[in-house]
Write a structure and sequence with these properties.
- The structure is a single chain.
- The longest helix is centred in the C-terminal third of the chain and has 23 residues.
- 37% of the residues lie in helices and 23% in strands.
- The protein is built from eleven helices and twelve strands.
- It has a single domain, classed as Metallo-beta-lactamase, Chain A.
- By secondary structure, the protein is of the alpha/beta class.
- The radius of gyration is 19 Å and the shape is globular.
């Protein structure tokens, strides 16, 4: 049901989305003071949102679609007592950046990678006016010192997009992956926004290399996950690419490969409405056959 709802959220006109788009948020406390926010009552709110609370600073990692800004602000105030001081955007897609402008109007300063700002700046659907774009950007990494712990923010190049960031909370042993993790789903690798399959795999490996068996991952889409969950999804992607590559190397054309259905073994577990088995196959073909 949630897979269908996510498909609708990403593809349907806004007017028809009102019936299934979340109007409020629920939370999961991943570690003391670190919450994952999702749509309440089984409804969808875009990508997962991370809220960090404490006596010093309130930080949000990603937000949601523009219409959900007021509901998100209400949830932040309920958990933290006041609006967010900072927002960190993990990448330039509207289900993670849409409420930027609204929350900026309520005092939030927005941080993101240089290329994320460039992507948003050139997109009139996201560059909607003052406050929509990050006003502080970084090229490689930065660290927030907040509420007695460090939040290390770092760029992951050419992965989901070309402006991805992930966040490691060292003391809490929590990693916010952005859309480097679609838990239990075929991932959306946005080749048209600078993403790549090889970069996505490399990014996943880099996050695994800084994790432990106790690390909790806040995924871009899906539940809070473990290192074992993350490894399972990376292994799937590596094997899926290899299965498609065998057919590409045989000289088969795109439609022949799709008809051969090399990812059938993963269909029941990973297929979903937005990135179907067929679309994942076509993404891998394009990646393997484009310089």
């Amino acid at each position: 049901m949630k897979r269908l709802a996510l498909l609708l959220l990403l593809t349907a006109p806004l007017a028809s989305a009102q019936d299934w788009m979340a109007t409020s948020f629920e939370h999961t406390e991943v570690s003391p003071g670190i919450y994952m926010l999702t749509g309440a009552d089984g409804k969808m709110s875009g990508g997962n949102i991370t809220l960090v609370t404490g006596d010093e600073l309130i930080v949000l990692i990603d937000d949601s679609f523009k219409p959900l800004g007021p509901a998100l602000l209400e949830k932040i105030q309920a958990l933290a007592g006041r609006p967010a001081d900072f927002i960190i955007n993990t990448h330039a897609h509207g289900d993670h950046t849409g409420a930027n402008q609204f929350l900026n109007e309520h005092g939030a300063v927005i941080f993101a990678h240089d290329k994320l700002r460039s992507r948003m700046e050139g997109d009139p659907q996201q560059n909607t006016g003052p406050g929509a774009l990050p006003i502080i950007t970084f090229s490689d990494e930065l660290t927030f010192h907040l509420n007695g712990q460090e939040a290390h923010v770092f760029h992951i190049p050419t992965a989901h997009t070309d402006g991805d960031a992930a966040i490691l909370f060292r003391d809490a042993d929590v990693i916010v992956s952005g859309d480097l993790l679609f838990r239990g789903l075929f991932p959306f690798i946005d080749l048209d926004s600078g993403g790549s399959v090889s970069g996505y795999e490399a990014g996943m490996r880099s996050l695994l290399n800084m994790s432990t068996d106790e690390t909790k991952f806040i995924s871009g889409h899906g539940p809070v996950s473990t290192r074992a969950d993350f490894e399972k999804d990376l292994d799937m992607l590596i094997d899926a690419e290899a299965r498609v590559k065998v057919l590409v190397d045989k000289g088969m054309g795109e439609e022949e490969i799709v008809a051969a259905n090399p990812l059938a073994v993963y269909h029941d577990d990973y297929n979903w409405g937005f990135i179907t088995t067929e679309r994942m196959t076509r993404t891998l073909i394009r990646s393997l056959t484009t310089d």
